[in-house]
Amino acid sequence: MINNDILPSPTYYSRPFWDGCKKNILSFQKCDECSSVQFYPRIICSTCWSDKLNWYNSVGIGEILSYTIVHRAPSSYFTDKIPYVIAFVKILEGFNMIGNIINYCEINDIHIGNMVSVKFKELDPLITIPVFELI
């Protein structure tokens, strides 16, 4: 059983992202004023401060820019999951995300520059999160 304290808390303006994850769709915001893309979801554009943001679906492909291997569990929930990999990923549409890398053979298979595709992991009936898999 997952502890609700570690689950994300969707807000009014992040709800479309979380709804997309439930449908296995990676969504991001794009500004109609300046065409900037952004992630994490916000109420205004992080570039021009416009409130003219719309949601788009990503192809879900990206490149690992950096990563870390976690060897010490931050809470009891993660004890049986160590070691695990968290990566900073540049998505093809131009925004960055952080997420777990799953389904790799060996930790040594993971490198900066590896391409990844988004997958989705249901944490509980209300929250599904994006994770990444090497391609």
Please provide a written account of the structure.
The chain has 135 residues and is mainly beta. The protein has one domain. It contains one helix and eight strands. The protein has a five-stranded mixed barrel. Strands 2-1-3 form a three-stranded antiparallel β-sheet. A hairpin with a 5-residue loop joins strand 1 (27-31) and strand 2 (37-38). The longest helix has 8 residues, at 15-22. It starts with 14 loop residues before the first helix and ends with a strand.
Please tag this protein with its features:
single chain; 5-stranded mixed barrel; mainly beta; 3-stranded antiparallel beta sheet
What layout of secondary structure does this protein have?
Layout (H helix, E strand, L loop, with lengths): L14 H8 L4 E5 L5 E2 L14 E5 L3 E10 L13 E8 L4 E7 L12 E10 L2 E8 L1
